[in-house]
Amino acid sequence: MHLFISKRFAAALLFVIIYVSAGAQNSNKVSLKTGQLYSGIEVGSKGVKMSILELNKETQKTGNYTVIKDTSVNTDFISFTESTFNATLNALTGLYRVATDQYRIEPRFVFTAISSGVSIQADKDEKKEWLNRLSNEFRTIVKEPSRVVSVIDVKEEARLSHLGIIPDSRRFSTFLIDIGSGNTKGGFFPTDNTNDIRLFQLTWGTKSIANATNARLGEDTAMSNFSRQLQRVLAGSADQEIVYAVNVSGAYNMSDNIAFSGGIAWAVATLLYPELIDNAVVPVTYDEIASFLERIAKNHASLSPEAIAKGVSDVTVDKKQVAKQAKTVNKVFDQRSLL
Predict the structure, then answer these.
(1) 203 with 241: CB under 8 angstroms?
(2) What phi and psi values does residue 5 have, to the nearest 5 degrees?
(3) Which of 118, 120, 263, 326 lies 20 to 30 Å (CA to CA) from residue 318?
(4) How confident is the model over 222-234, as a mean pLDDT?
């Protein structure tokens, strides 16, 4: 069984969503010469993500597309407080304006959705009405009462993730585990029918695990106590659900490869193998991940942008780009989030 981390997540998944459906940083206007711009904006557990892609007349034949922009705004929507709700609404509206006003994308080519992770956490916390409230207030602000804000079903999200992330050559031999902020989903195709995925899902993700850990801290917010409480969360209902889901999936008997994707997978790949910064896929072993986990807990300073860049010995690697990517990782994932 081979383990590898895929860095292809946001834009690749958006491409498949656009392909199926259609069958706030840079203010520069885009001159479209050869294709059509599309935008996908997703409300996730950790925040709001947007990708802008250019598809041309050859895309349907080749599957190739150009990523014009990838960006996100962290808002922690699944905390379900008024402040995080307003931050999410502002981010969703702001990114929509970037797509329609700055990039001149017609509203019919802008797709808006709420991730399955948000929906699952809302069910857990009995906050389902917050999703409807967010969608309704967004429609009012952008003055599009008929705009569709889809709440993506977890099985469909897993299927689209597999199609968007895993290359065709490994389509039917790879078990995908897409680790999100609010949930984890994925699976594999037991036959050559790509409409039929054997679903793997957990109601736990990086943010929901962190929230459950923080709830146990009490007055002792030290890193040592966080690590201790994290292990207790993972040893409790999360562990039982993970073991059960893996065993029920039957993936080990049907797959030669296990691929991990999602924001945390990208972060780990970037910090663990900075010299492979341009690689879409990075091979890993269990021992390497275990060693990296200990490094996060005991020597987090070694993961600073400067330290990561300094550790690259390959003279052909752009250390400035490595430091830039590491800085982005550190901005999105602090020490506790990485654990």
Answers:
(1) yes
(2) -105, 130
(3) 263
(4) 90
297-330 pLDDT per residue, tens? 899 999 999 999 999 998 899 999 999 989 988 9
Q: Which two tokens stand for residue 88?
A: 């999410």
- Token match 């020597």: residue? 299
Q: What is the DSSP letter of 101?
A: I
Q: pLDDT above 90 covers what percent of the chain?
A: 40
Question: How many residues appear in the chain?
Answer: 339
Instruction: Give DSSP secondary structure letters for 127-138.
Output: -HHHHHHHHHHH
- In order of their start, the domains of the chain are 9-151 (3.30.420.40), 155-338 (3.30.420)
Short-list 211, 143, 207, 205, CA closest to 178: 205
Of 7, 95, 107, the residue nearest 43 (C-alpha): 95
Q: Which residue, chain included where needed, has tokens 């034949």? A: 61
Cite the beta strand spans of the chain per DSSP E. 2-6, 35-43, 47-56, 66-74, 110-114, 149-151, 174-179, 184-188, 198-202, 257-261, 281-284
Where b means 16+ CB within 10 Å and e means fewer, 19-39 reads: beeeebeeeeeeeeeeebbbb
Q: What is the pTM of this model?
A: 0.73
If phi > 0 it is left, if psi is from -120 to 50 it is alpha, else beta; for residue 284 that is beta
- pLDDT at residue 21, rounded to an integer: 43
Is residue 113 very low, low, confident or very high in pLDDT (cuts 50, 70, 90)?
Answer: very high
Most confident of 45-49, 105-109, 176-180: 105-109
Tell how strand 2-6 and strand 257-261 pair up.
parallel
Instruction: Return d(Cα 62, Cα 43) in angstroms, integer.
Output: 29
As a whole number of angstroms, the distance between CA 272 and CA 265 comes to: 10
Query: Rounded CA gap, 27 and 182, in Å?
Result: 31
Q: What is the pLDDT of residue 8?
A: 53
